[in-house]
Amino acid sequence: MITTMKHFLFTTLVTLATTSALLADPFPIQKDWGTLATEGESLRITLKNGSDLKSIDIPRLFNPIGPVTLEPGGKELKFKPGTTTWNIALPPDTSSGTVKVVTHGKPNLPSNPPAVGIDKDGSYQFPAHLATTHGEMLRYEPQPHKNTIGYWVNENDHADWQLNVKTPGRFHVEILQGCGTNQGGSLAAVSLLKNGEITDNVEFTVQDTGHFQNFIWRRIGTVALTGAKGQSLRVHALKKANKAVMDVRKIRLVPAPARLAVWPGKAPGEPFASMDADELKAKVAMNVSHRVFGVENPTITLYKADKAKANGTAVVVCPGGAYNVLALAKEGTEIAHWFNSIGVTAAVLEYRVPRRSRDGFHLPPLQDAQRAIRLMRQNAAQWDIDPDRIGVLGFSAGGHLTVMTATHWNEQTYKPVDKADQLSARPDFILPIYPAYLGLDAGHKGLSPLVTLSEKTPPTFVAVTWDDKMRGADAALLLNALKKNKVPMELHVFAEGGHGYGLRPGPDQATTWPALAEVWLRNQGLLKKD
Fold first, then answer.
1. Is the pTM above the cut of 0.90?
2. Which end of the chain is less crowded, N or C, counting CB atoms within 10 A of the terminal residue's CB?
3. Domain 259-523 listed as CATH 3.30.420.10
4. Tens digits of per-residue pLDDT, 364-374?
């Protein structure tokens, strides 16, 4: 990384204190002005008496950095990041003292870039500060100023990360990218390399975000990681559109489990006349792993329970988001992992959003959900699940969709497309969690006319809060109606908790609903191995 090594002199490093640790490698320094050593999570630069320096250059670190100060006194200093060095300006007539550079973590030298390993959630995170930059001007610009890879002006510039693969597989590629007004349009790519040769590649068009420091997450495709050694990740420009390419703050690889298209071709009614094609394209371009803004081709992502725990029960999970967006992490993948922990296989449904049908905003998602239930039954033997133990869980709008699957299962909402559509779309049980639009909160004087209950409505578990608009009251109306139809229902109306908490723990009792749901599932016989 240090291309100007020949311009530096080397000096013997000395231990500054008993708590200090010498750098593993000699630190190249400009001129004979002092010594460098680490002390905890900081770099201490002891200036040589009588140096009369105006500034000093240090090699860039693989760390975000905090304040840079001159001790004693604690005067904060300014610094400028270069391609391979950072220049620290000193006050006039500085002849002695210590420059302290606070770092996030023990200072890492460019001669030994740290390898990126797997994170706790199974993803790989590639922050800007761990990249090795290659280019005439391309550089890592550290905190507290920017913490980004910037000055991307040439087509052949690129940034690399070392990669230590622990879990091979297919991963979504997501990039936190910024670009100035009227500077978008460059063609770029994120590539996997083995010993310098590209093995997999995802191309994308840089999006104008209004400012190079205005970053947005984008999901741009998928790549396959292997267990081979010598892998690295690269982000690079392919064709520059304007004066500059982009700034990058972070890239991440997120596990991409098996995904199955819900429909063999276009979904029913697509494209809807009420859905502007350019608007939908713009929504889809905003999709990331945790939040999906546009879906034209619905999918289910399968999270199979471990064979040692699997009990044969399966659930279609419907994330919420007002039928306009999908909270895919908080109300999708996280609940799928929770189901897996209790032996249940989960299929996260990415149903069509945003709203598009004049006949009812729930109708296209209901078609997707009915089809998903049928696909689960069609693939039951292959996926080791019981076709008579398939339920649906959803949050908010997804909770409403869950109720729709339980109350309209016997309606033909779309023209059959293959043998899967000969199977029943009735869920065997449902768990609407803080469901929306069931009644009073949607303006109805009672339950919505869409909530058509009967004795064949499946057993139901509901969790909601009293302070979530009128949804607690709506749930009570649902309880009363199911009681009349002799359908078993367990209802938990918590005093406080609001809306949208998903599985995440919090101070309110409402966040204890997963434990109650597990007991209910167990009492229904759904967690017993068949």
1. no
2. C
3. no
4. 999 999 999 99
